[in-house]
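Re: the 129-residue chain
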Amino acid sequence: MANRYREVGAEIRFHPGILVSDLRYTVIDNDYTVLGLPSSAGENQPTREGYVIPSEGLAQVFLRQFQSRWDEATAYDQYLKEVLSEIRNHNPTVSTELLSSQLQIQESEVKRILSLDKSQRPNGQENGL
């Protein structure tokens, strides 16, 4: 999903403290907070209940939390590069086709991320990716 958002221009980051949260929120005009709660725990659960809270103070709490987590988070390219590197450390001969299939992203995206590391090395030397 992150790759799809990135392809249309969104800046994507990952933060381990947020990946396990079931609370969903949106801040509107710095004054309103919309809290959404899924009907049950799980990654594919839709938001069933929502509450609009008109409070500038609460909105600021959520905005500060978001910004601090955003600043600490890992950018999409770096995150995917780390995932691919970890996989390749355990299985250096794994194909880009299999990586694509397992990570559910296009093979061209796997190749793009793998080529980032090569392009940053002097004389195109590889460093284990």
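Confidence is low (pLDDT under 50) at residues 121-129.
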